[in-house]
């Protein structure tokens, strides 16, 4: 299964997202994905992907919930994913309402992925504490579980509290949408094994499809799942393929095939650095799906 990130950031954010979504689905895309960037700090404390800067594309971005709503109404079949929502930015009641509404509007196609982010400036702007991000993610997932599966709902945690309340809008997917977590370090991978339905892995093209590293990460997940009394095979893997600037089509197609041949048959491609218009995005989609 092969999907694509929607043109959400940079110059392409001004283009026709609905046309991209509907056309990509017609061409055979299995899934459509959004990311979550709040702003791009002028002088970042922490840069992006190990660098000391933040890509210029992140200075312009469509809200991920609105982007998913547009994609949901423009399509009928493609799964709709997030890689990933930075969970601690969002109060759980509002987040659950948005995600439940998306699952209802799309007829049960939502695949929400969650993570903890990396930008102190984004946390500051969101009014969220940067420390104990993992603990905040755990609490948010606990609250979402309640909001999605029970009514009345009540939650009392370290950061958030929900008074006993009726919340009758529930997802189409039962008992709830699958929870995906983005992780590549030990603590996050253990969290995937202990409580997630799916793992969002990440590779870079060219040069970043490290099968040994993916296998090590997956073993961490499987070990944590067994320790929690869970079946590791029930935890799905989905791989994000980040395509670097000036990359040709062939290395991307080879990466998709390599992943599929090694058990990672569900992947999606992010074209933010190689496509700047709706038409160039769709040209990449058509050529990759043809391959």
From TrEMBL:
- Presence of keyword Flavoprotein: yes
Note one Pfam family from the annotation. Bac_luciferase
What GO terms are given for molecular function?
oxidoreductase activity
Under PANTHER family, the record lists: ALKANESULFONATE MONOOXYGENASE (PTHR42847), ALKANESULFONATE MONOOXYGENASE-RELATED (PTHR42847:SF4)
Question: What is the protein name for this chain?
Answer: TIGR03619 family F420-dependent LLM class oxidoreductase
Q: What is its EC number?
A: 1.-.-.-
Which organism is this entry from?
Answer: Mycolicibacterium gadium
Sorted keywords for this record are: Flavoprotein, FMN, Monooxygenase, Oxidoreductase
Keyword Oxidoreductase (UniProt)? yes
Sequence ranges assigned to domain Luciferase-like in this UniProt record: 12-247
* Catalytic class of the enzyme: oxidoreductase
What NCBIfam families would the database entry show? F420_Rv2161c (TIGR03619)
């Amino acid at each position: 299964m092969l999907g694509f990130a929607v043109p959400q950031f940079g110059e392409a954010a001004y283009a026709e997202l609905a046309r991209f979504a509907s056309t990509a689905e017609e061409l055979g895309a299995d899934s459509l994905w959004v990311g979550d960037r709040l702003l791009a700090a002028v002088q970042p404390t922490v840069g992006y992907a190990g660098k000391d800067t933040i890509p210029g594309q992140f200075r312009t971005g469509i809200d991920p919930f609105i982007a998913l709503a547009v994609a949901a109404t423009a399509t009928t079949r493609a799964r709709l994913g997030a890689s990933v929502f930075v969970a601690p930015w969002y109060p759980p009641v509002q987040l659950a309402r948005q995600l439940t509404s998306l699952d209802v509007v799309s007829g049960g196609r939502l695949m929400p992925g969650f993570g903890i982010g990396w930008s102190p400036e984004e946390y500051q702007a969101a009014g969220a504490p940067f420390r104990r991000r993992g603990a905040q993610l755990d609490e948010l997932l606990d609250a979402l579980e309640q909001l999605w599966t029970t009514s009345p709902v009540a939650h009392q945690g370290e950061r958030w509290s929900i008074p006993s309340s009726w919340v009758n809008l529930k997802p189409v997917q039962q008992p709830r949408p699958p929870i995906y977590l983005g992780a590549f370090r030990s603590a996050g991978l253990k969290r995937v094994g202990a409580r997630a339905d799916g793992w969002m892995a990440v590779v870079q093209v060219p040069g970043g499809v490290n099968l040994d590293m993916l296998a090590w990460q997956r073993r961490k997940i499987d070990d944590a799942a067994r320790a929690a009394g869970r079946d590791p095979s029930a935890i799905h893997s989905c791989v994000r393929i980040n395509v670097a600037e000036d990359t040709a089509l062939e290395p991307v197609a080879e990466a998709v095939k390599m992943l599929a041949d090694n058990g990672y048959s569900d992947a999606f491609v992010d074209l933010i650095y190689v496509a700047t218009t709706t038409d160039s995005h769709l040209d990449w989609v058509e050529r990759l799906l043809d391959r």
